[in-house]
Design brief:
This protein has 302 residues and is of the alpha/beta class. It has helices spanning 6-16, 24-44, 51-67, 73-87, 123-133, 153-160, 173-185, 227-240, 260-272; strands at residues 92-98, 104-110, 143-146, 165-170, 192-196, 217-221, 248-254, 275-287, 290-301. The strands form two sheets. Strands 5-4-3-6-7-9-8 form a seven-stranded mixed sheet, sandwiched between helices.
Length: 302
Amino acid sequence: SMSQNADELFQQLITDCIFPKVQVSIIEQIIEMIESHSKMSRQYGEESLTIEQRKRCSSWLLHLLHVTDPDNESLLDQISSALASLSGWGGRSVRTWKIDDNIHITIKEISDVDGDLGYRTWGSALQLSKRIASKDISLEGHDVLELGSGTGLCGLVAAAAGARSVVMTDYLESLVRLANENIKENQLDQIAHAVQLDWRDVTTNSMPTHIGRHFDRIIGSDIVYEVFHAMHVPIVASVFLEKSPDAQFITMLPSRSTHTKDAALFQEQMLAKGFYKAEEIIIDGWEEEKSAKMRLTRWKWT
């Protein structure tokens, strides 16, 4: 098999799980191929390796770990790195959220190794989604804008629950790509799409042209955890929410003891922008393995 090139050996590995016995330079090339397939899956969301093929690659890499000379640190590092990217640690995971009997949403997430907080689906998003599905928050027939959509759970549930249109927004381009993949994955691309939105581009007298319209419902979960958010979210809501007595901005925010100042500032800025609380309820939520109170607020124009 010495004469075979790395490409052929890689194909053999993923089809027949034949462990190539070859010199180190070829082993390194095969490991690079495995890594690049994993990276491609992360960037573009198309799984370039099937689950079976990933398992075969993992088996081979584990085998290599056992037989590689302990002094060959660079090869051991390469093997470990390829295993990590295959196993989804620093990669993707796919979860199906059963929101209620009718609405099941499949979400690709990216672990924190790859990105910031937005790449995971958080407790407040799940709480808001459940209320949208149960029609406690009725979005049926409405035009919905989601702020800080992250992986897109709330916007997808809104689309599945009968919203007329849904525009999901986030600041990070890679998250917008991820949300658009999740929209396609759930076959909701007739109703929903995701676009990039930097809150700093929204000022009291300017609306970003690529969105360029008003909405009668705006939703956001866990979007205020810094002073920056507390100052900007009220501006964004005031620019995009249509000026009608029925229009609503619905927020689901965890009550974190570390963020009481941000929450108070947010409230103050919302009132200053001409909103009032039409309804507010405190919900027992679940946040990163510990119980947390969530605050669901419906804001309307005064």
